[in-house]
Amino acid sequence: MGEENHEIVVREFDRKKDLLGVEDVERRCEVGPSGKLSLFTDLLGDPICRVRNSPAFIMLVAEMSEQKEIVGMIRGCIKTATCGKKLSRNAKNNKELIKPVPVYTKVAYILGLRVSPSHRRLGIGLKLVLRMEEWFRENGAEYSYLATENDNLASVKLFTDKCGYSKFRTPSILVNPVFAHRVRVSDQVTVIQLCPSDAEILYRRRFSTTEFFPRDIDSVLNNKLSLGTFLAVPRGTYTTESFPGSDRFLADPCESWAVMSIWNCKDVFTLEVRGASLAKRTLAKTTRIVDRAFPWLQVPSVPELFKPFGLHFLYGIGGEGTRAVKFVKALCGYAHNLAKARGCGVVAAEVSSREPLRFGIPHWKKLSCAEDLWCIKRLGEDYSDGSVGDWTKSPPGLSIFVDPREF
């Protein structure tokens, strides 16, 4: 798979001969503005790490044909996910039941577009995107989407003005530091770890009509990077030993409950904040020293973010009942303590900006992003509109399901 234009060849990534060139472009693209904080990502020697757990994935590189120099790259993956819902009528015990069921579509995701600073404004980014979209179409994807920072004007302009994408959703990325002390989890809540099969039943029964819900949720929950799914229920209702299974639980659920899954990004990539002044680094170190010396003070210490650190990603966040927000907060506390035990620097979640449960997710504003921009494009006009119509024109719902394989 290759194509040449203006001495640029776009082809599939070859680890043996492209790894050093790709890493060099990554380093050059992550040079932050002088005197400002910048976030650097170390992919731990695996440039495809952030897509390789998806059902289908690829990485393309742009190469100067004569110099054999890598000057750009792009990654993409494809899955089947929920794009809407419809009402289904089923006869049961001579009674007709009407319930919403998911409508699935094959959707592709673009991430990690990079062009070497010395080769920008030559159309390389556009060329990479268009070739990636060809691969998407060849593999039956109906839609393509991507996430970018709202203030990344160059990226937004490329995708919306030149590639035909539309601004679609603006979820919030909520990031919380992992303190040197354990956080208190409410004693009014019991946290139960579900086995993957029970987690799958719960998610399919309650959240499969949520936008972007992956049809292969079982693959996600059974992945080696999944640290488990956790259910919060009122104290005194169930214990780990007495939990009857998701089928019976959902047949007669508690008045309030919440669920959350945790994904181990630490084994995929690490992050590092660079560009911090000596004063800021000293202040952060001081908070950690005080927190370790006097943990009962519950000082909100700043973790060591100025050297490589790992993160845990919280996904599949949902719940029901009047106390669901409080139960989500309890699950976040549980997740924080798990991240502390495993040596992570932060925990992160991404939820719809309209998600009611987001108020239970602790986060620091300076580390978070209030509006991450998702853009979407319909890849062909010959697809059936089905019962949903053109997904790109659909209004947002209260929730979205953020696939941890694409974070």
TrEMBL record:
Under CDD domains, the record lists:
NAT_SF (cd04301)
Which residue ranges run through the membrane?
none
Q: What molecular function does GO assign, one term?
A: acyltransferase activity, transferring groups other than amino-acyl groups
Domain of life of the organism encoding this protein:
Eukaryota
Its recorded name reads N-acetyltransferase domain-containing protein
The cross-references to InterPro entries, in alphabetical order and at most eight, read: GNAT_dom, Plant_NAT
Domain N-acetyltransferase positions: 8-184
Q: Which UniProt keywords apply?
A: Acyltransferase, Transferase
Pfam families, A to Z? Acetyltransf_1 (PF00583)
User: Family assignment?
Assistant: Belongs to the acetyltransferase family.
